[in-house]
Write a structure and sequence with these properties.
The chain is α+β, with helices and mostly antiparallel strands. It has two domains: 1-365, no CATH class; 368-479, Immunoglobulin-like. 42% of the residues lie in helices and 20% in strands. The protein contains 16 helices and 16 strands. The strands form five sheets. Strands 8, 9, 10, 12 and 14 form a five-stranded antiparallel beta sheet that branches. The longest helix has 30 residues, at 161-190. The chain binds iron/sulfur cluster (SF4) (2 copies). One iron/sulfur cluster (SF4) binds next to helix 14. One iron/sulfur cluster (SF4) is lined by residues 253, 284-287, 289, 291, 299-305.
Length: 483
């Protein structure tokens, strides 16, 4: 972290050493509460390499996945309006809102478990905000404007031709990337092909979607390009609640004060600890904190300071790990318990909700059928020479399921005494049911012999012609003339 742009107060204005942060306020605000811009320096090291691998894997997931098609369907799509959920080529139709709710809650408990054990691993390693800023937006900024000091200088410089073209180029590329991210985000909900054809048409044809994409683009552009660490510090709800999920056994990025203190410059050289007070850990921190002051809410566990400090330790021939992943207990010399009641509780609750999800999914994947008798006459009698030969009852049958299976439905009764006496007539047999819901007219034609006092209840099997298995059974009351 270095100075701020022109017109803004920076840490350098506040203290003799610009990296010696004021203990009374955040590094990102001055004494009047205005924002202090940060220029985190780049860092190299083993943790950065690991994070880059994770980041690029996630960028593929976040940005490329929905554009892939498997079995003619997007790899991942959540169509909320149609209640369809497509996952790697399989679609669940008519998904009930409770399933989304159960999935969401179970996800939150599993994140709670990860947080209780590994601390803010989500923030530093997987949050789209961190992933995109670290891997794409900061890279572009460094490519166009240079290293941290050059970027800072450019911001402080008066408006020159160089400053104008660099800023214009940077924000143009930012805008193009933000547009792509916003479209991909919408693609998760609409489907990329549909979205592509929508974007080819006039914005006024789908003004709602156009407006939503423009709003997302603006939010992404401003957040990733300018607001950055402010979002983590001020706005992120997870950042606020994560401290509730963590305790002194959770893994955090921490400074080993026992080993590091007293740091260089405070005491005689022969008594000083391993910290040489180079402030490199502060200079690289994307949220502008000094981790040597202990675990702080603003720390997103990005590990930049670990790499920065390890580099120094290597140069002065001291063991690495003065700043490292550890727990508060471990720093106090107490054994870290990674598995403890809190983390077990999160896993158990997560498992309960995910099991409920699969239970409801299984239950609602079965075929459900509703018979609605047609309005008007309850039956039609077909007579010959004044004698009733056949009777028909007409029903509307509503079929519903939310699994990914395609059914080819046909009907039969399972009563041997009705053999040759009952027939089922539909406009198409079998009825192809590939989506969540459909309805068809079913005429049941039967011999009046089966009626007892003008009525008869029969069981109808719905069987799938492809698998030849019964997928549902329904009781239906038939009515006819009393004879
Ligand atoms: S203190 Fe270290 S781990 Fe925490 S945000 Fe700053 S650089 Fe990242
Ligand atoms: S990078 Fe390491 S040695 Fe340098 S100030 Fe930070 S903790 Fe001390």
């Amino acid at each position: 972290m270095e100075k701020s742009p022109k017109g803004k107060k920076s840490q350098s204005n506040m203290s003799k050493n610009k990296f010696e942060l004021d203990p009374e306020r955040l590094a990102t605000t001055d004494e009047e509460g205005h924002r202090v811009y940060l220029y985190p320096e780049d860092v190299a090291g083993v943790w950065k390499n690991r994070r880059q691998l994770v980041y690029w894997g996630l960028i593929i997931v976040y940005l490329v996945l929905p554009w892939f098609y498997i079995n003619g369907k997007p790899a991942l799509m959540v169509n909320i309006a149609k209640r369809e959920f497509t996952f790697f080529g399989s679609t669940l139709y008519g998904v009930e809102p409770i399933l989304f709710f159960l999935l969401l809650i179970s996800g939150l408990f599993f994140i709670g478990f990860l947080t209780s054990v590994f601390g803010r691993v989500w923030c530093g390693w997987a949050c789209p905000q961190t992933v995109f800023i670290q891997s794409i937006f900061l890279k572009i900024e460094a490519w166009i404007e240079g290293k941290a000091r050059q970027r800072e200088k450019l911001d402080q410089d008066p408006l020159t031709f160089e400053k104008i073209w660099k800023k214009l180029l940077k924000w143009t590329i930012y805008t193009a990337i933000s547009l792509h991210i916003a479209h991909t985000f919408m693609g998760y909900f609409i489907g990329p092909r549909e979205l592509f054809w929508i974007t080819m048409g006039s914005p006024f044809d789908h003004f709602g979607i156009f407006t939503a994409v423009m709003i997302f683009t603006t939010i992404i552009l401003l957040d990733f390009g300018w607001f950055r660490e402010q979002f983590c510090i001020i706005a992120c709800p997870y950042g606020r609640i994560q401290s509730v999920m963590m305790d002194e056994n959770s893994l955090v990025v921490a400074y080993d004060a026992k080993r590091g203190e007293p740091r260089r410059g405070l005491v005689d050289r022969s008594q000083e600890g391993d910290c040489v007070n180079c402030y490199n850990c502060v200079k690289v921190c994307p949220t502008g904190i000094d981790i040597r002051r202990g675990t702080q809410l603003e720390c997103i566990a990005c590990t930049q300071c670990i790499d920065a400090c390890d580099d120094i330790m290597e140069r002065i021939n001291k063991p690495k790990g003065l700043i490292r992943y550890t727990s508060e207990n471990a720093l106090k010399g107490i054994k870290t318990k990674l598995i403890r009641p809190r983390s077990v509780l999160y896993v158990v609750l997560g498992l309960i909700f995910i099991s409920s999800f699969f239970y409801f999914l299984q239950a609602s994947s079965n075929l459900q059928a509703v018979f609605i008798r047609s309005k008007g006459a309850p039956f039609n009698a077909i007579e010959e020479a004044g004698v009733v030969q056949q009777v028909t009852n007409v029903f509307t049958v509503k079929l519903k399921h939310q699994g990914s299976q395609e059914f080819h439905i046909d009907f039969k009764h399972n009563d041997p005494t009705l053999e040759g006496k009952v027939d089922f007539l539909t406009s198409a047999r079998p009825i192809k049911l590939e989506r969540a819901e459909m309805q068809t007219v079913l005429i049941i034609k039967f011999s009046p012999d089966i009626l007892v006092a003008g009525g008869k209840t029969i069981k109808i099997d719905f069987y799938d012609r492809i698998t030849n298995s019964v997928v549902a059974t329904k009781e239906v009351s038939l009515v006819g003339p009393i004879h």
